[in-house]
Amino acid sequence: MSIAAVSFDNRFASELPELAIPWQAEKFPEPRLLALDEALAADLGFDPEWLRSEEGVRLLVGEGAQPVAQAYAGHQFGGYSPRLGDGRALLLGELTDSAGRLRDVHLKGSGRTPFARGGDGLAAVGPMLREYVISQAMHALGIPTTRALAVVATGGTVYRESPLPGAVLARVAASHLRVGSFQFARATRDLELLRRLADHAIARHYPEAGSYLGLFEAVVTAQASLIARWMHVGFIHGVMNTDNMTISGETIDYGPCAFLDAFDPATVYSSIDHAGRYAYRNQPVIAEWNLARLAEALLPLFDDDEEQAVKLATEALGRFRPQYQEAWVSGMHAKLGLQQGAEELIDDLVEAMQADKPDHTKLFRTLSAAARGNAPAPMPEAWMSRWGALNPDLDGMDRVNPVYIPRNHLVEEALAAATAGDLDPFHRLVEVISAPFEERPGLERYTEPAPREFCDGFQTFCGT
Ligand code: AMP
Ligand code: MG
What distance in angstroms lies between residue 218's CA and the mean position of ligand 1's atoms? Predict the structure, then answer.
């Protein structure tokens, strides 16, 4: 293989030039590969060995491509910014994977772009490895997500609160179309551009949609399902701005995200989320709010008559709540190894969890272990016997309730070591969370909740 032999499609850039500014990545003098998902690389048609070579690593920091910075707008913490865009990211282009699907290959931390505003365009090793490990965990959990292909250390220094080693993340996504992409297109008042963007989204993600309203309905359904999946595993995105919500239904933009330790629905980890807007329990209503912004952006495409367009949009958005509820309830049944009809038992469980604040991940595995007689009951006797009387499918539970997630204290430990030059704990953690359901001897440390001192006041940072 050689760089010259890799040919990216430029479908986004050629179909939507108004949303794409041709731009080159910064030249990094000493790029060094820190992490590579070899299976993903092979799936995209790369020889993983070659990607590890000096030339392959140069491709992973943007050499040889005709990248673009994508334009988008967005509501950040509820306030509208008309021009965000890729301030430190570039779309290298698209590749077709082994299943024939078009995938974006995208860099983050590759230098300033015309959208950089005051930012330096760079990223540090810690936050990029964080996106790598958490997106890997989400994928292994079966949750739709953008994927991390590689993290390359740039050899340069990034200045945050302290000087940090710099890195570039190469990520792969079904696309980088965001709610904010539509907000941007709508704000141009160029209806033809908005229509072209919607056509592009339909062709890439929902070819069966049939209409622009069908596109919106498909996004509503995808997001209802996605957010329910987050809730089931205790994932807190942390910064659900409209520019961080995809049209494809993939989780995107791993910043201050983290998994719940103790079950407290009010949990907020992000240091900048002072009002708790993006708390664990708020994620469904925030998703609905973001989808309302998408509906507003798409409105002129729904009907020429504005009143009729609003009526159609309102009806479609109204499906989010029942769809989310349906997805959440059915997933909770699966977590308890039950068929349908156990809503009351589920409500009682959640109520008890709110009172006791058990470790969210450990609780569900302890339930199946207790039912096998291998662990003390984690719930009161009365609840255990009601549940046991329904004959839960214990093996089925263990296929949906992870043993291993990237626990906050383990992530912090691995990233601190990596920043100091020791990647072993990071690679080990990635290996453990890549098979989240299969309990393996010797990995007890990875199943244990964080020490209390760690949990109290634990905060995550955007790393921007
Ligand atoms: P985020 O909250 O990470 O999704 O980023 C919001 C916006 O800030 C996006 O437009 C990013 O491209 C931009 N941004 C974040 N960090 C930087 C940085 N270090 N340099 C330039 N732009 C950035
Ligand atoms: Mg973002």
Answer: 28
Beta-carbon contacts of 321 under 8 Å, excluding residues fewer than 6 positions away, are 288
Torsion angle in degrees (nearest 10) through CA of 136, 280, 365, 352: 180
The pTM (predicted TM-score) of the whole model is: 0.97
To test the pocket of ligand 1, the residue of 88, 242, 277, 461 to mutate (highest count of ligand atoms within 8 Å of its CB) is 88
Half-sphere exposure of 48 (CA within 13 A, CB side): 11
Task: Dump pLDDT digits (tens) for 124-176.
Answer: 999 999 999 999 999 999 999 999 999 999 999 999 999 999 999 999 999 99
Q: Which two tokens stand for residue 407?
A: 């626990």
Tell me how crowded residue 373 is: count the other CB atoms within 10 A of its CB.
6
Is residue 73 within 6 Å of ligand 1 at its C-beta? no
Using the 8-state DSSP alphabet, how is residue 434 labeled? T
- Choose the catalytic residue: 37, 43, 104, 243: 243
Distance CA 58, CA 65 (A): 10
Q: Distance (Å, rounded) from C-alpha 221 to C-alpha 363?
A: 29
Question: How many alpha carbons lie under 13 Å from residue 233 in its C-beta half-sphere?
Answer: 32
pLDDT (tens digit per residue) in 267-318? 999 999 999 999 999 999 999 999 999 999 999 999 999 999 999 999 999 9
Q: Measured from the CA of 255, which atom of ligand 1 is nearest?
A: 3
Contact status, residue 226 vs residue 372, Cβ threshold 8 Å: no
Whole-number pLDDT of residue 170: 98
Decide if 243 is catalytic: yes
The pLDDT tens digits of the residues spanning 81-113 come to 999 999 999 999 999 999 999 999 999 999 999
* Ligand at shortest distance from the CA of 245: 2
